[in-house]
Write a structure and sequence with these properties.
single chain; eight-stranded mixed β-sheet; about 15% strand; globular
């Protein structure tokens, strides 16, 4: 049996309350952290928040930090005092749902959507973080929450028990296998050691498939979450499991040995679940979601969490990880010095440099750009750089140049979108970025979000568009790929160096 603790709800500065409820100890006796810091290579940057109360004594601060860490990892249970009119959202700690990011802030697709919906109906939010999908579903059925927002697949069984909200994301259920296993079809699954999260949509799908493949067997796992099971598959403890395609896409960057062996049926829809009798609330949810989708906010959200994952290359990730050990140490202090001068993250500069040159100080392209930051001769001259092959000069020059691009992006653009646009300007030039934003307005896209600009950039190579633009033709698709790869390298680097 898991032990449970009760504590007062944690109030955040945004007015929401987080109700922590999760296992204190694993049945085998080891500390069970929902953040899986020791089980996965920190894929969703779940870490101790950096903020501390400045006037606290050292012992008090230590206790506060410990409590925050326990909250982040799900190893404490807090039950909040709340008003009857507040919205209670049941969720779980995972990179596709709800987590604490590297800056100590709450994040995740489900978290952001829940906050937006609650704001639209003028209600405060209370998040109850539970251990598993099974526990979330049971809690919802017992009336302990208003909404379950946890990456839940719409299934026939769930529709019979609950009211479902509008679909917000389509995923595929994929059979994920350890290295060396290649499957042609589902008839090859019998005989493999398959581990599936108990009472999940995956188990429901396999139960249906067993009518066609009677020999199909699997182990229903009750004391782990999908992220842990994927790790076991990667290490060879299990032959295969089943996971949603979005979950697999995130974890392949950290576990590149994972392979999608088969897709089970057609795409499935992710929805929120509400208790039976919640027709009025679901009407409000439907109305809010339609506006959220039409306004483009849903697309921006999905791009923020998933937009860079299509540039994943398992071999590239493995090479990158090796070079973090073999090449990066020679230049890390130079990246840190450049970051200190410009205010940019050193890890971002290092990720960009890897995309540019693979940390090769003498790299040269056919077009004449050279050095670890691959500067053109005119750019180097404008920055006062005489030798582009000098790593120190190249890194500092590249950081200054990126900082200059950043300063030219309007301040009303969000910080994150400004950064991606600045990187695009670094890659294809400020004038082409300006053209892309102008074209975005002409074509009804948002010129102030990276999502909108990203949609437009590839069109800069199309004659019917670039003929109308001041700077003319540009290879805009290359800029999109450039930034998506930098985002991947940056995420990986943060996990590897930490």
């Amino acid at each position: 049996m898991y032990t449970r603790n009760r504590r007062k709800g944690q109030k955040t500065n945004s007015g929401l309350t987080i109700i922590r409820r999760s296992s204190a100890c694993h049945p085998r006796g080891e500390l069970r952290s929902i953040c899986l810091l020791n089980l996965i290579r920190r894929p969703y940057n779940c870490q101790m928040p950096r903020r501390a109360t400045p006037h606290c004594s050292q012992p008090t601060r230590a206790i506060l930090i410990l409590l925050l860490w326990l909250a982040a990892t799900g190893c404490a249970r807090d039950v909040a005092d709340r008003d009857p009119g507040d919205l209670v959202v049941l969720t779980r700690n995972a990179p596709t749902t709800y987590y604490i990011d590297r800056d100590g802030e709450l994040a995740g697709p489900e978290y952001e959507m829940a906050i937006a919906f609650a704001k639209s109906v003028n209600r405060q939010v209370h998040f109850e973080v539970l251990d598993s999908i099974d526990e979330i579903v049971r809690a919802l059925e017992e009336g302990r929450g208003d909404v379950a927002a946890a990456g839940l697949t719409r299934t026939v069984a769930r529709e019979q028990r609950f009211v479902t909200g509008p679909p917000y994301q389509s995923v595929e259920e994929t059979v994920v296998c350890r290295p060396g296993i290649v499957l042609q079809d589902m008839t090859e699954l019998p005989g493999l050691e398959i581990g599936i999260i108990a009472n999940s949509s995956y188990e429901e799908t396999l139960t249906e498939l067993r009518e066609r493949v009677p020999e199909l067997r699997w182990n229903a796992i009750t004391d782990e979450v999908t992220e842990q099971v994927l790790r076991r598959v990667a290490e060879g403890d299990l032959d295969c499991t089943v996971a949603d395609s979005n979950i697999l896409a995130i974890h392949q960057r950290y576990l590149p040995e994972l392979k999608s062996a088969l897709t089970l049926g057609t795409e499935k829809e992710l929805v929120w679940l509400l208790p039976a009798g919640s027709e009025r609330l679901v009407e409000l949810l439907d109305a809010w979601f339609e506006n959220y989708r039409v306004s483009g906010e849903l697309a921006v959200l999905m791009n923020r969490y998933y937009g860079h994952l299509n540039q994943f290359d398992p071999y590239d990730v493995q090479v990158f990880a090796r070079r973090v050990d073999s090449r990066l140490p020679q230049y890390r202090n130079l990246f840190e010095q450049a970051a200190g001068e410009t205010g940019l993250e050193w890890t971002l500069l290092a990720a960009q440099a890897y995309q540019e040159s693979h940390w090769e100080p003498e790299a040269t392209s056919p077009t004449g750009v050279r050095g670890i930051m691959m500067l053109t001769q005119p750019t180097a001259a404008s920055l006062g750089i005489e030798n582009r092959l000098d790593p120190s000069a190249s890194i500092l020059g590249g950081a200054r140049y990126l900082s200059q691009r950043l300063e030219r992006i309007p301040l009303h653009v969000s910080a994150q979108d400004r950064l991606w646009m600045a990187l695009a300007a670094y890659n294809i030039g400020q004038n082409h970025l300006r053209d892309a934003r102008m074209l975005a307005v002409m074509l009804g896209e948002n010129p102030n979000t990276w999502t909108g600009v990203k949609e437009i950039l590839p069109r800069l190579s199309q004659r019917r568009y670039h003929q109308q633009l001041p700077a003319g033709y540009a290879r805009g698709l290359e800029a999109v790929i450039y930034i998506e790869r930098i985002r991947n390298y940056h995420d990986l680097l943060l996990d590897l160096v930490n």
